[in-house]
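Re: the multi-chain job from yesterday

Posting the exact lines I submitted so nobody has to dig through the queue logs.
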Amino acid sequence: MLEIKHEVIRNVLVINLIGRLDSSTSRLLVERMISEELSTNPRIVFNCKDLNYISSEGLRITLMTAKKAKSLGGALTLCEMNAFVSEVMTISGFHELLGAHANVDLAINAIS
Amino acid sequence: MISDTSQNNKYKNLKIAALFCLVDIFLTGGAAFFSNSLTIMSDFFKEVADFTSVFFALLTLRVINSHKADEKFSYGIGKLENLASIGVSILMLMSAAFILYHALGRLQQPEHPQGTLPGIIIFSLSAIFSLFLYLRNKKILKTQKSAIVDSQMRLWLSKAWLDGLMATVLILSALLSNYHWSAYLDPLTSLVGVILLLHGAWKISTSSVHELLDASLEEASQLLIMKKLVEYIDDYESVIKIRTRRSGVQIYIEVFLGFNPNLKMAEVQGKIDHLTSAIKSTFEGSEVVVVASAENNIFE
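And the result, structure tokens for all chains:
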């Protein structure tokens, strides 16, 4: 199960991911990213505070979001990951690629 | 791809093992007949089980080698190795049950083993040759993963320990025959052998069942593929899909990527080659294919 909530703070699109991001739920994120006008808000923060699990398929969608954001002059960064998600991001190199922050404010500051 | 040389080594190894088992069966059978020894008779039946498992593995390897990938089995029939390994572990379990049955009987009605001298010679030679086969299989396993070679390595290690223990027990029983308690040495040592066989069978079956059930790569390995894609992130435009599969011990990885349509094919091929090498270096012996896909980017 994946629930997605969003808000725009200081022209940064903050996506709150709640639940699991895996092969069965990743399509939800894709549909939301398309519908949330990614082109007008290419600076994105994935708030992982309530994200329990992310699979390799979830990473693929994250990677695609990051590339799309970059192509539009923006970027994607991450914040408030739990231990498991943080480990996955570290092993796969996403930690280094996207950056990880302790909270939403720090993530927004970094990406602004 | 598994090389022909590796396959030949595995095949040669199994033929040596089968020949050794046949010789052992002949010697053990003869010794059991002339000595009327229950210890050696038990070993004779265990040798028959060992020969059956080696012969089964040999046949399996022959079938796998003769059956290349085709329309029905597009990844070949490598999983037959895992099935054969499970067969070996079942035979090891049966041997353990057989030895346990006789050991428990001997504990209830202890008697000194007979046919000591032929038994000592046969068990000693068998232990030495089993150790040789264990080391041979271990060496092959270092160069390539194989469920059959792994199961054979564990089988010969268990056998080397068991035969070594039996030879030791027969020597001690002969030296300590004046002591009544020395009659318990044989069945107690057999129980240790049972534990070794059970441990070996457990190790083989858990890894083989896991490889049989799980068709795609486990998540930890998928993360390593993603890591390579992150390292080469600027070489492609999109990751369309990633497909992975295990067939026996062989790993297949297919990565479908979208590239900048303005690039020339030669440039795209260069990027594909770099990424293919990078992923292959992470998964030794794997088959990796990176495909320039015309499928649409999910965000387009």
